[in-house]
Specification:
It contains twelve helices and 23 strands. It is an alpha/beta fold and 443 residues long. The chain has two domains: 326 residues, 3-Layer(aba) Sandwich (Rossmann fold), CATH 3.40.50; 99 residues, ANL, C-terminal domain (GMP Synthetase, Chain A, domain 3), CATH 3.30.300.30. Strand 5, helix 9 and strand 6 form a beta-alpha-beta unit. Bound molecules: zinc ion. The site of zinc ion (ZN) has 7 residues, from loops.
């Protein structure tokens, strides 16, 4: 591994006790900031009887009320327009508008000041540097830039590092591939679904083998695929490139990243964020590795619309193994393993949709696209998997189906109805794929 491997050598190798001290100090500061500058936060904390002077330890932080997305929606439906009373700066200091994708309801608006925006770029610089981006890289971003935050901050961070950035915004997939080829781009950022979709288009429609192109690293976002081993492997093989995961959200920031050591998880940027993991049943904060819970997160430096103990609904678990890269930032094992909303009981069995993806993508002969539908037949839950069979696998379809059913039962403890479709028949997604549909809620 090369010498200069950290974006911020001081923060990324800080001893644990110093990281914790820094987090506590920063939490005290952002909590006081929110309390003193936002009507919403002040009344929330007053009602709970937790004041800035009360925060002396991590135990005290646990008494600070959580904020949920639904609360932000509610605030923003009221005056002052358009951000409601959670805004901590005068409106004329807001320099950037973004909004959440709205996959789980009405979008939440996200105002950022110029300082916040520089913070976004800085936090992405940690990610890109850890994944091997250097000034010599030519970075192609095959993504429609718009009202959502993806991949704006990645773009600015790549510029900040000194890479050469090619915004592939309004081009269609084939034009993007041709541009990558023409410019010999070395890196790109995209959703896992689109990374696979581009490779597919290159091979099927353009007779181009994406592994022969010059891309040598890919940063993924938006979906958990890059942390699902079989999906990662498909992407790495297709492009002959290293594929890295990162996790972030509009209302939080870019809070974690995989490093070049690829330890089977992601580092939390603990200098910028405080991550707490809460037991889904008891609400207890989990400190030890190996126990899953949902993430409660604080962005320690974000000012316009603070993110203080935000209930992200992301399900994660700590990993205490030291990473070969030498970073002291704590790892979360296997990345974000699901959403607490998505983790559901089917036939009484707890199911995380990512487990289905891991099986589908591990089987040779199956396409990248699939859909899972849960519904009810009378009183009984039924789970159906629709998946595409590759043209060259038609003859083996029976064997593949048996293998698929066995693996699904083994990995998720459930029996599935499986349907094979001809290649190209299932819907393609560019942004957030909606592959898991639970129709039982309508009954
Ligand atoms: Zn590492």
């Amino acid at each position: 591994m090369e010498k200069i491997q950290y974006w911020n050598p001081f923060l990324e190798t800080l001893p644990r006790e110093k990281i914790r001290k820094l987090q506590l100090r920063k939490f005290q500061k952002i909590f006081r900031w929110a309390y003193e500058h936002s009507v919403f936060h002040r009344s929330l904390y007053d009602r709970a009887g937790v004041l800035p002077k009360d925060i002396r330890s991590f135990e005290d932080i646990r008494r600070v009320p959580k904020v949920e997305k639904a609360m932000m929606r509610d605030i923003q439906s009221r005056d002052p327009f358009p951000y409601g009373d959670a805004l901590c700066v005068p409106l004329d200091q807001v320099s950037v508008f973004r909004q959440t994708s709205g996959t789980t309801g009405k979008p939440v608006y996200q105002p950022d000041t110029w300082q916040d925006w520089e913070w976004w770029a800085e936090s992405w610089a940690f990610i890109l540097w850890a994944q091997g981006y250097r000034p010599r890289d030519r970075v192609f971003i095959p993504f429609g830039y718009n009202i959502f935050v993806a991949f704006w901050a990645g773009h600015y961070a790549a510029e900040k590092i000194g890479c050469e950035v090619v915004p592939g915004g309004v081009l269609d997939t084939q034009a993007r591939i041709l541009k990558i080829q023409e410019l010999q781009a070395t890196a790109m950022m995209a959703t896992p679904t689109y990374v696979l979709g581009m490779a597919d288009t290159a091979r099927q429609k353009m007779d181009i083998d994406p592994s022969q192109l010059s891309i040598n690293k890919i940063t993924c976002a938006g979906e958990p695929g890059a942390s699902i081993p079989s999906t990662k492997k498909r992407m790495e093989t297709a492009w002959d490139a290293k594929v890295y995961d990162h996790s972030g959200a509009t209302e939080i920031g870019a809070w974690s990243y995989e490093c070049q050591a690829q330890p089977g998880g992601m580092h939390v940027n603990e200098a910028f964020f405080l991550v707490e993991i809460e037991d889904l049943d008891t609400g207890e904060i989990i400190e030890e590795p190996g126990r899953r819970g949902k993430m409660i997160i604080t962005a320690l430096d974000r000012q316009a619309q603070p993110c203080v103990r935000f209930d992200s609904k992301d399900v994660i678990e700590w990993d205490d193994a030291p990473c070969a890269c030498g970073r002291t930032f704590r790892l979360i094992k296997g990345g974000v393993v699901g959403r607490s909303d998505d983790i559901t009981k089917v036939k009484g069995v707890l199911l995380a949709p990512a487990a289905i993806e891991e099986v589908v993508r591990s089987i040779d002969g199956l396409g990248d696209e699939y859909e899972v539908i849960v519904d009810k037949l009378g009183d009984r839950d039924r789970i159906k998997l629709k998946v595409e069979l590759m043209p060259d696998a038609q003859e083996r379809s029976k064997t593949i189906k048996t293998h698929l059913k066995d693996q699904l039962r083994l990995k998720t403890n459930l029996a599935y109805l499986t349907e094979f479709y001809d290649y190209g028949r299932l819907p393609r997604y560019e942004v957030k794929a909606k592959r898991f549909k639970d129709l039982r809620k309508k009954h």
